[in-house]
Amino acid sequence: MRATGLAVSTGNLRASCRDGVRFQSTRAAERWRDLRTRELAGEIRALKARPRFHLKAWSPSGAVESGRYTADFAYIEDGRRVVEDIRRPARSRHEARDLARWILQANYPDIRFREV
């Protein structure tokens, strides 16, 4: 893992891993390294960084795409899809992100959602 400078939006130190994946924080890079080790050990599979999910909201006229949610990581564990986000400090949490996460869970009920 190598630090590359400060991320403007968060003030976190940006980092990149040996496999070329870049992250906006050293914490995310460390979590990627841990998950990658678990994938190589066969504990998880199909690991992805920053997966996007299309969100839909329902109205009387039908489902309408309301946006996208980008998680930090996604993988398959014990046959179920798991989506992880790095827990942010309370002062930097946004209500819009919490709402998007709630809509994600409503759109994809079979996904386990974790904050680490």
Set down the secondary structure blueprint.
Elements: E1 2-6, E2 13-16, E3 22-23, H1 26-40, E4 45-49, E5 52-59, E6 62-70, E7 73-77, E8 80-85, H2 95-107, E9 112-115
Parallel strand pairs: 8-9
Antiparallel strand pairs: 1-2, 2-3, 4-7, 5-6, 7-8
Write up this protein.
It is a single chain. With 116 residues, this protein is α+β, with helices and mostly antiparallel strands. It is built from two helices and nine strands, in the order E-E-E-H-E-E-E-E-E-H-E. A hairpin with a 2-residue loop joins strand 7 and strand 8. The radius of gyration is 16 Å and the shape is globular. The two termini are 19 Å apart. The model has no long low-confidence stretch (mean pLDDT 79).
Mean of pLDDT: 79
Fraction in beta strands: 35-45%
Q: Could you give a short account of the major beta sheet?
A: 4 strands, mixed
* Shape estimate: globular
Stretches where pLDDT falls below 50 for ≥5 residues? none
The helix-strand sequence is EEEHEEEEEHE
Number of helices: 2
The portion of residues assigned to helices is 10-25%
Number of separate strands: 9
Q: In whole angstroms, how far apart are the ends? A: 19 Å
Radius of gyration: 16 Å
Q: What class, by secondary structure content?
A: alpha+beta
**Spatial ordering of strands, largest sheet:** 4-7-8-9
